[in-house]
Amino acid sequence: MSLTYGCVDAGTEYCPCNLAVTGDCLICSRLQGKDTCDCDWSGVCIQNEFMQNGGRPSGLRRGFTTEVLQRKEYGDDLQVLTLVAGRGFAQRASKPGSYVFLRHPKEMRFYDVPVSVLRTSEEAGTISVAIKEQGHKSKILLTAERLEVRGVYGGGLQGVKYLQPGYLKGKKVLFVTKGVGAAPALLTMSRLTPDTAARWIADADKVGKEFLEEYGSACRPQYVTLSQPDQLAALQGTIRESGCDVVAIMTSDYFVSVIRALAREVLPEAKLVWSNNARMCCGEGICGACTQVDADGELFRMCKCQREE
Ligand SMILES: Cc1cc2nc3c(=O)[nH]c(=O)nc-3n(C[C@H](O)[C@H](O)[C@H](O)COP(=O)(O)OP(=O)(O)OC[C@H]3O[C@@H](n4cnc5c(N)ncnc54)[C@H](O)[C@@H]3O)c2cc1C
Ligand code: FES
Question: Which domain holds residue 161?
């Protein structure tokens, strides 16, 4: 199964981005300096947009400082923070795969932590995020009363277009989650319409059942322990028997690659979606923190790049 690539920002309000200025657009061959158009992009012509905009990019996302409205603890090292963000921001953050960068307002830019959006309230103009204490940066977030927020970024998942409510209409989707990787699944589940049949296999490791059940009210979890080989093997049977159209795997990279292979074997036609666990810093395709190189030596900026199988 070959991989194809796209850009998560193509055709959005953030396109054309700063990469267009230097001939580094991920999609448009003309903006890459070639004489011919050989892109597979079926949306509004990016080069045309760029020219009509006077050769200027749409601009980078700006940050703002905001209040932590509510903080709820789950166990010793997981907190759900609700932040005041404004209605427009909350609406943009409600799309599957949305994430923001957070940092303590007194710290410098390299303290930015990418965090998935867990829940939004467009009415209240708030977003909620679940933060698991890991190291230096996340510990600081868990004590802050105000936070600097930058976003909204859309590439928290690979293959995210297969989780859009429009695509899932009348289809069956199976979520497999582990730990705090469940956050983007929970946001997606909260947006599903009744004509999508959803099933959720969850490993509560490191986050606990209380957190999962509180935020997963749209779908009941079926618990497994993925680190147990017999349960991982049984998962393949569950995937096969689900006959689902989309398998969304939101776990660490290790389990993403194992479960992706299991799913591919028994449901070769299913669309796959998985966590984008790249190391992120700017989220704009500029800093290079997230770059990965494929077997052909081609370099991809994983914050922008959408891979699909
Ligand atoms: C798109 C995306 C969404 C995420 N969503 C959530 C979430 O909802 N909740 C949550 O608790 N965590 C989430 N993470 C992970 C979170 O960003 C890292 O745990 C955090 O940056 C760790 O920083 P630290 O200094 O606390 O820990 P460290 O001790 O520095 O690192 C702990 C782990 O996090 C990784 N990490 C460190 N910095 C980054 C970085 N800038 N980008 C990605 N990984 C990093 C390290 O490689 C290591 O595996 C997400 C990451 C990405 C890329
Ligand atoms: S995070 Fe900076 S280029 Fe991707």
Answer: 157-275
